[in-house]
Give the backbone structure.
Amino acid sequence: MLENIDLNFILAVVIAYLLGSISPSTILAKAQGVDIKKEGSGNAGTTNTLRVLGKKAAIITLIVDIGKGVLAVSLAEMISGPEAAYVAALAALCGHVWPIFFKFKGGKGVATAFGVVLRLDWRIAVMMFALLVVVVLITKMVSVGSISVCIAFPIACWFMHREMFPVSLIMAAIVIWKHSDNIKRLINHDENEVDIGKLLHGKK
């Protein structure tokens, strides 16, 4: 039975999860004596990092979160092939949302999800990014943009990259679930609007 176990596949998925578990926002905040999960929205992601720590930290967070998604999928494909790459994409997202290094308390996964999709099919990634930008500019709410992308992502995969469709459904469900508090605030009409221009011209 053991001979049927693909150790390279397992290794690829484990590495992807561990890469996903790296949380730049948490590390940068701790370096400044701040607990990112207790400040702002409490989310260890780019938007809250921008709000709490400023532009430089937010840019670093965004680059690392996207980069670890790209790297996780790339390594998985090198180690075990295309099938491992799809599972690694999900593993990297799970690592970001439930990081083993930070008591399984991570971010919402949008940037890391973008990174893995960028590596799997850049066309879909570009489409989702464009949708995110348009929705955020119209609504001034990053959460609405993120949720919109989660709804559109599996649809795009169904038509453009059907091999990704099962994973895309799970990824979308995880990210939407992580936005449950935002959804409640949207229903109650008290979700915070984000003035990106003001934030970018603000601190640091």
